[in-house]
Amino acid sequence: MSLGQQLHPHLPFLRRYARALTGSQGHGDAYVRAALEAIVAAPEEFPTDVDPRLGLYRTFHAIWSSAHLEDVPAASGGGREAIAQARLARLTPLPRQALLLTALEGFTIDDVSYLIDMDAGEVEALVEEALSEIEAQTRAKVLIIEDEPIIAMDIETIVRDLGHDVTAIAVTREDAVREALADRPGLVLADIQLADDSSGIDAVKDILAEFSVPVIFITAFPERLLTGERPEPTFLITKPFQRSTVKAAISQALFFDEATAPA
């Protein structure tokens, strides 16, 4: 198999990565093209002691680094991708590379160490720096709608551990709507079955009628939401839940929330 045939399956993913790294498809494709031109001009210099995908990304990074690109242009268009790109653009180049290579491209820490020519400890520190910066960008006020005290306390601890503030813990539909209007949250975590037999679904509908806010449902009755008869929630966690699952859902919901996107 020729080198071109070995590299061809990886090019769509390299283009995706280059777009996320540079902020636009045009800029990203220019760097991918330059990397391919360098490989064609000197195929004997292409790494042969590693997987072809690693060699391709290594060549790309050599081209990208030599250009000393520091500023990522604002993403064009709108939607979730533009919001994500706005967050990534706030990161300095090395942490951005480390985060994208691990989280988006699925490379191991050792792989990234090879790709950007840094030791594994430095790569891990860069990833942590990037995640900390994104967490700072997505800090929010959170309303918890949950009538079971122990579960409510557990969720509150998770929220505060992530660096967010809890505006209130509501136990009924009426409480939830009142608290939401009194101090508009940036995120709502809601159970379905509430203390007075009122519905968390109805509470969320009332809140969303007043303003837009991301919602994560945490419930022992997911079948009440997964009916296929109406738009189903993006984030639905089943009780009993894993703390890591709740943390991941909170981070994901806020990462793509337009209200917390960098200006």
TrEMBL record:
Which stretches make up the Response regulatory domain?
A: 141-254
**Highest taxon of the lineage:** Bacteria
Question: Which keywords has UniProt assigned to this entry?
Answer: Phosphoprotein
Which Pfam families would you find in this protein's record?
PhyR_sigma-like, PhyR_sigma2, Response_reg
User: Which residue positions does 4-aspartylphosphate occur at?
Assistant: 191
Gene3D superfamilies per the UniProt record, alphabetical: 1.20.140.160, 3.40.50.2300
Is Phosphoprotein one of the keywords? yes
InterPro entries in the record, alphabetically?
CheY-like_superfamily, PhyR_sigma2, PhyR_sigma4, Sig_resp-reg_PhyR, Sig_transdc_resp-reg_receiver
Keyword Phosphoprotein applies: yes
Protein name according to UniProt: Response regulator
Q: Which organism is it from?
A: Sphingobium rhizovicinum
